[in-house]
Amino acid sequence: MVTTQISYAKIFLQNIKTQTWTYTNATGSDVTLPIGTAMGIVYATSLCVECLSTATDGSQKPYAVLMASTTIAAHTSQTLTLVSSGDVDGSLIVFNNGTDSLTTPVSVGGDVEGTMTTILTKGGINPKTAVEGTFGDN
Fold first, then answer.
1. CA–CA separation, 138 vs 104, rounded Å?
2. What secondary structure, in 3-state letters, does 92-134 show?
3. CA-to-CA separations, 54 to 21, 104, 108, 128, in angstroms, rounded
4. Which of 7, 66, 112, 113 is placed for a possible disulfide with 37 were both Cys, Cβ 3.0 to 4.6 Å?
């Protein structure tokens, strides 16, 4: 028996603006990024990568949220569409390392700049609480 779960949750709520950025997969295997993945930008290369609070290259600061699930083949680059501002369902933002969350502190040069939420909000992304079946998120 096959069970399929379908979510009708809407991650991108309103006032969405997008940008495109290049993601380079330098690993020897495919990388799958789910919709809603928090993305950071590496200062030195201007490439987008998964946002990790432990990074020290600039990507520890969440810059945008991935607009659609995608798989990037090994040793290739792909242009991704990222939501760079607007209202986003905070409960659906994905941090791929399994330990980061919207409340994780973000440090740059040893100084805490705020939480993932405050960094996203400063950049124009507003993590919201969406309630299914209400006018505002449908």
1. 29
2. HCECCCCCCCCCCEEEECCEEEEEHHHHHHHHCEEEECCCCCC
3. 22, 10, 10, 25
4. 66
Global pTM reads 0.86
Residue showing tokens 């299914």: 132
Q: What is the residue type of 108? A: V
For residues 42 and 11, what is the distance between their CA atoms, to the nearest angstrom?
Answer: 25
CA atoms within 13 A on the CB side of 23: 27
The predicted-structure confidence for 19-59, as pLDDT tens digits, reads as follows 999 999 999 999 999 999 999 999 999 999 999 999 999 99
3-state secondary structure of 137: helix
Cβ distance 137 to 86 under 8 Å?
no
